[in-house]
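[Discussion] Sanity-checking designs against the backbone

I'm trying to build intuition for which residues belong where. Below is a structure token string of 746 positions. I'd appreciate it if someone posts a full sequence so I can compare it with mine line by line.
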């Protein structure tokens, strides 16, 4: 007994020395260091590492609702906190953690979804840029700022594929496409984690929500998901796989049940696929309260059972359910959760703490000077403006109304967004005390851009969700006195986001009526739509000459919009989601199956897969977006008409800038497998390139295609390709492509 005590005491001493950075421990591998800590831990301390609490922290001090959180941290019962940021706050709690017996540092997690101090466009908007370098940089900057404020871990990227714009969380992801979503997942993970965990400007990424959360029935948040395994593997999982392959340190599971099993208690997802087939070495955190919510699902009888099911299924950390901290010890004692399950979870969590360097210096993210430096980083604002302008989609530009002249005599700037500040930030963003000066409104952006002699008139017209027309008269008056109307409308920042599903995705309130009233003045009108999802605005789309989709663009929104309006930036963004004509078409997505009775057009309705009362086509298709110039595509030429396994195919087009401006086209490659052992989509995105062309210039754009691009999950869920004919399509949107056919044989 005495001997055991002595051994433990010596181990503890060595461990404490190591934490203070005074011994040889760095020479050991992280796995060895993890094991040496694990050996010292009691069961309660291990369970503590699997427990995460919310901060409930106010600027003036701790206001934790259940006052004993700090005590629990001191007693080694908490492994991580969320929603505690700022060097001051994180330091205070870290100091408390270091009073615990083993001095294991806390991890601080935060939803840094599209920026921390500098707010970038919402992820869906960034996805419209199709610009992986810019997206990676946006995540890099978010990580730099957040890590300087003590944050170790962001709950991003959200990589859920979403085909239903009623679902408010479409704003957080990359849209409907698996290929684009996978590229963006990689860019974001790489951006957040920078040169690797262990650098003080890197935050751990968290791919979420694992899995299929985006397919919630009816677009209703937290709702059930029922889908075939092929859909799951083919459409919904690849962006997660891309995130794991890019080294994402963590995953978050999701609120939904998948085919009857809540994701949090889902072994297939977490053990078989993620930690098994994909060999993921990081840890999985539950979503907020999702362990306990398995009781509501009717999957767990009580919290005891929920803790058992979640931990056994591979959920390593419990976010705010308190199910683990209250039940795991008993479950282990009763043999319902085996020690290796606990050890595996704790090992994964400790490993990340080591990789973050927190055992060497728990305060390495608590540097006031760095926090201050990153508080006003002008380079970040420049990058934000750049990302924002790249995210703006030009939906319509009749008679080349845009770009506007900077010498325009009088501009009427109208609408609830004309002078908006915080609504430009969108959901999942932070408000800072100096927002009123830092955020650039449309009004300010335009004012800075135009000639000193340009007169600007403002009228609000209506509020975002107003039902009153009281402001219309003033707006009409302003319009009548102007040469051009800029009408800025859309959704308030809390209309899309978590728990923000809407059954109607029309423009809120009387905003479209305001469009009609201003259009009736006969003045040229440019409509700018700020939103967190595809909205429906058919009247506007059919009547007004120019429309820019401006999403929620972040801190420099007004500057970025002005850059586009006045031609300093020629738009090249393309929609990452289909925009429906009516909610009745939802879910609507470009990569659907053909069916046995496909309608050839909207007149072809007789016993066809069509609606008797509605078009089958979206208002704006996936991949669509205009430029101030125009691009002409030649036919597709293939390097061969028939090829064999192992060979590569090159598909090319000649792309000409046939307009008057230099511009960038996002050239898209789609493939269709014409006959398969299971039916295949009418087209699938398999590549894209952003090509810059001077006015009048022509370039050859080529894609190299391999049999990897032809693979799919067959009836036995085997991932392979099959011999046959394939349509190779290249174009500027999913609905406008040139085609050629290749015969590819094994
Ligand atoms: C619930 C959300 O679903 C998740 O995405 C988020 O990271 C957590 N809350 C923490 O805020």
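Best answer:
Here's mine. Compare freely.
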């Amino acid at each position: 007994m005495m001997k055991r005590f002595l051994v433990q005491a010596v181990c503890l001493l060595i461990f404490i020395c190591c934490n203070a950075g005074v011994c040889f421990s760095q020479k050991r591998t992280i796995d060895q260091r993890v094991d040496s800590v694990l050996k010292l831990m009691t069961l309660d301390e291990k369970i503590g590492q699997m427990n995460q609490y919310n901060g409930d922290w106010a600027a003036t001090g701790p206001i934790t609702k259940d006052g004993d959180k700090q005590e629990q941290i001191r007693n080694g019962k908490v492994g991580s906190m969320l929603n505690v940021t700022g060097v001051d706050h994180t330091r205070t709690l870290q100091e408390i953690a270091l009073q615990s017996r083993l001095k294991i540092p806390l991890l601080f997690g935060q939803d840094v979804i599209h920026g921390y101090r500098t707010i970038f466009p919402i992820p869906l908007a960034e996805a419209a840029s199709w610009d992986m370098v810019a997206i990676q940089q946006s995540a890099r900057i978010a990580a730099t700022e957040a890590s300087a404020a003590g944050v170790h871990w962001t709950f991003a990227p959200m990589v859920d594929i979403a085909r239903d714009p009623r679902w408010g969380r479409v704003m957080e992801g990359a849209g409907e496409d698996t290929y684009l979503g996978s590229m963006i997942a990689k860019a974001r993970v790489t951006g957040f984690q920078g040169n690797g965990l262990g650098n003080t400007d890197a935050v751990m990424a968290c791919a979420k929500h694992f899995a299929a959360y985006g397919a919630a029935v009816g677009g209703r948040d937290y709702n059930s998901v029922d889908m075939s395994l092929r859909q799951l593997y083919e459409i919904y999982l690849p962006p997660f796989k891309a995130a794991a392959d890019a080294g994402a340190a963590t995953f978050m599971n999701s609120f939904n049940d998948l085919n009857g099993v809540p994701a949090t208690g889902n072994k297939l997802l977490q053990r078989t696929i993620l930690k098994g087939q994909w060999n993921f070495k990081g840890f999985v955190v539950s979503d907020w309260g999702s362990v306990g919510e398995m009781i509501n699902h009717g999957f767990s009888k009580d919290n005891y059972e929920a803790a058992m099911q979640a931990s056994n299924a591979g959920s390593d950390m419990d976010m705010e359910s308190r199910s683990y901290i209250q039940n795991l010890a008993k479950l282990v004692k009763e043999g319902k959760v085996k020690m290796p399950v606990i050890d595996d979870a704790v090992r994964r969590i400790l490993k990340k703490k080591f990789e973050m360097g927190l055992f060497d210096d728990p305060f390495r993210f608590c540097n006031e000077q760095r926090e201050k430096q990153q508080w006003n980083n002008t380079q970040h604002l420049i990058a934000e403006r750049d990302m924002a302008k790249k995210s703006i989609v030009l939906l319509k530009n009749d008679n080349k109304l845009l770009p506007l002249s900077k010498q325009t005599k009088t501009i009427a700037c109208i609408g609830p967004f004309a002078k908006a500040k915080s609504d430009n930030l969108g959901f999942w963003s932070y408000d800072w005390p100096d927002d009123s000066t830092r955020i650039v409104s449309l009004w300010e952006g335009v004012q800075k851009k135009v000639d000193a002699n340009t007169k600007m008139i403002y009228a609000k017209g209506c509020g975002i969700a107003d039902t009153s027309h009281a402001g219309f008269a003033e707006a009409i008056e302003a319009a009548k006195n102007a040469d051009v109307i800029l009408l800025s409308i859309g959704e308030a920042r809390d209309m899309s986001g978590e728990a923000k599903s809407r059954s109607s995705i029309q423009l809120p309130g009387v905003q479209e009526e305001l469009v009609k009233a201003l259009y009736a003045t006969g003045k040229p009108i440019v409509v700018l739509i700020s939103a967190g999802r595809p909205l429906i605005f058919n009247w506007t789309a059919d009547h007004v000459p120019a429309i820019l989709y401006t999403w929620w663009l972040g801190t420099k929104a007004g500057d970025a919009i002005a850059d586009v309006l006045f031609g300093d930036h020629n738009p090249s963004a393309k929609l990452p989601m289909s925009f429906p004509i009516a909610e009745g078409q939802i879910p609507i997505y470009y990569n659907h199956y053909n069916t046995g009775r496909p309608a050839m057009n909207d007149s072809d309705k007789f016993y066809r897969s069509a609606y008797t009362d509605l078009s089958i086509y979206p208002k704006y298709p996936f991949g669509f977006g205009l430029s101030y110039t125009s691009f002409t595509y030649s036919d597709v030429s293939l390097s061969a008409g028939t090829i064999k396994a192992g060979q590569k195919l090159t598909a090319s087009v000649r792309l000409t800038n046939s307009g008057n401006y230099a511009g960038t086209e996002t050239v898209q490659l789609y493939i269709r497998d014409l006959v398969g052992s299971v039916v295949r989509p009418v087209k699938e995105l398999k590549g894209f390139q952003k090509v810059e062309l001077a006015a009048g210039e022509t370039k050859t754009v080529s894609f190299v295609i391999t049999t990897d691009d032809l693979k799919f999950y067959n009836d036995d869920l085997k991932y392979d390709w099959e011999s046959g004919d394939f349509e190779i399509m290249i174009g500027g949107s999913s609905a406008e492509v040139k085609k050629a056919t290749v015969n590819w044989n094994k």
